[in-house]
Amino acid sequence: MSVRDPLLTYVPPGLRMPDEERGIVADVASQRIADAASAERRTREEAVDYILEDCFLAFGQAVGDRKSVRREAVIWLRQHYRERFLGALHRFGNRWLLDRQTVINVGFLLGDRAVRHSGFRPEIDSDAARRAAKDVERYCTIHGRRQSRGRAQGEGEPLRAGTWCMPYGSDL
Questions:
Q1: Pick from 71, 66, 67, 88: which is nearest to 126 by CA?
Q2: Which of 51, 59, 73, 106 could form a disulfide with 129 if both were Cys (CB 3.0 to 4.6 A apart)?
Q3: Quick one: pLDDT band at residue 143, thresholds 50, 70, 90?
């Protein structure tokens, strides 16, 4: 007579799973448990990709047909803001739906500043993109500090673009 685990429910013999299939199911379950450990990290990275696409759409709308953007400028901006957005998601959680309009407005500002920093050149290069990013981050830092001054401790986090622009590990 076999001893049954009291936590298992009775399964009629016709519906029982063969031992080899039971092993496959156990392997799949352990793989899902392992995948769940990295799910939060993957979710953050997927969210950052979506956020970057949204911000680059605003950047492109601001630039319009006034200038073209060099490939190395786009790569630099994407890497630069990917790091910052991942840091913001790590520090504050996914506040994108709350902060979306503010961050998109800052994307427009970034595009406009990049056009100005490119001067009379027909395209925005990585140097103009870096200078525009520096301007925008200065603006976000000042604006974020100004909003933080008027809030008492524990009142909650204000909606601001500064949290998205700051390098990981820095505070407003």
A1: 71
A2: 73
A3: confident
* CB burial of residue 86 (10 Å; 0-12, 13-18, 19+): middle
CA dihedral 44, 81, 83, 149 (to 10 degrees): -90
Residue written as token pair 């401790």: 153
The answer, yes or no, to whether residue 116 has pLDDT greater than 90, is yes
Q: How far apart are CA 172 and CA 166, in angstroms?
A: 8
CA distance 118 to 130: 11
Contact between 104 and 54 (Cβ < 8 Å): yes
And the tokens for 172? 């407003």
Read off the tokens for 28: 């799949």
Which class for 101: exposed (0-12), middle (13-18), buried (19 or more C-beta within 10 A)?
A: exposed
Give the DSSP H or E segment for 123.
strand 123-124
92/87 Cα distance (integer angstroms): 8
The pTM score is: 0.68
User: Do residues 60 and 106 touch, judged by C-beta distance below 8 A?
Assistant: no
